[in-house]
Amino acid sequence: MKCPYCAEPNTQVVDTRENEDGDTVRRRRRCLVCDKRFTTYERVELQLPHLVKKNGSRAEYDREKVLASMMLALRKRPVTTESVDVAIDRIEEKLVTLGEREVPSDKIGELVMRELKKLDKIAYIRFASVYRNFADVEEFSDAIREVKKPRVPRTPRSGTKS
Fold first, then answer.
1. Which end of the chain has fewer CB within 10 Å, C or N?
2. pTM > 0.85: yes or no
3. What are the tens digits of pLDDT across the range 70-103?
4. Do 67 and 127 fall within a single domain?
5. In a domain, 111, yes or no
């Protein structure tokens, strides 16, 4: 693996860890020339379907685009990068299990929204407001009501003080 800092091809693996599911390997590496450290990830390359955009054009699935859109929605939110990676892995797994060669791009948007809803409600609302292109405040309020937890009514304490 080439060092991203000095482009030296000689690097050393310092630490190797698998994720919980065993489908991704994280490696910490050290450059033997500049001594800087960096992380690489190894995962199985799946045959993901092509996307059919709203205008009819086709594009290859791009993990980096999905990551970038999720990270934008999650900006300044308390969600780990590892959690986002796991969420994207679940999205890709769903796409592969569809068994389709092509899927509409809005299917990706729906899968991203489902994962963001699990990760962080605020990020979900941020993404939904752009993805669904809310026309008015009422649509925004509907999305908030959708994620809002129902409040459990307090029961009055019974009994008297002794």
1. C
2. no
3. 999 999 999 999 999 999 999 999 999 888 999 9
4. yes
5. yes
